[in-house]
TrEMBL record:
This is Plastocyanin/azurin family copper-binding protein. It comes from Citricoccus nitrophenolicus. Keywords: Copper, Metal-binding, Signal. InterPro entries: BlueCu_1, Cupredoxin, ET_Amicyanin. Residues 36-125 form the Blue (type 1) copper domain. Residues 1-24 form the signal peptide. The keyword Signal applies. It holds the Pfam family Copper-bind.
Length: 127
């Protein structure tokens, strides 16, 4: 083993350890609460790369589902962005999604979207 590689390997190992810990490189986290009257806030504005976490604080089950028939004239997510679906979230459960693509990401609750207008928007834009 050469003198150079002996120096580089410990540095690489240290880098791997740091990657597993909290650091300034970790994504920003923003929170949406799911309540009995809908998503709070209804529209959340975040920077690209932000992780959004929805938590169901209601006794009823809900979903966080992009697109949907409530928005026939709107593009559910911007070009190049992934659609998302939490599935059934019971009280206390959390769903997380990282948003990278700028634009409006519309979503709704599959159980209460149509009847109760339970809809929300994640707006991704540069700060
Ligand atoms: Cu719901």
């Amino acid at each position: 083993m050469s003198r150079v590689s002996r120096m580089v390997l410990p540095l690489a190992a240290a880098g791997l350890l740091l990657a597993g810990c909290a650091s300034p490189g970790d994504p920003e986290v923003a929170v949406v609460e799911i309540t009995g009257t809908g998503y709070s806030p209804v529209t959340l504005v975040v920077a690209p790369g932000t992780e959004v976490r929805w938590t169901n604080a209601d006794s009823r089950a809900h979903t966080v589902t992009s697109g949907g028939a409530l928005l026939p004239d709107q593009q559910p997510v911007p070009d190049g962005a992934a659609e998302f679906d939490s599935g059934r979230l019971v009280e206390g459960e959390t769903f997380a999604q990282v948003f990278e693509v700028a634009g409006d990401h519309y979503y709704w609750c599959e159980y209460h979207g149509e009847r109760e207008q339970m809809v929300g928007t994640i707006r991704v834009e540069q700060p």
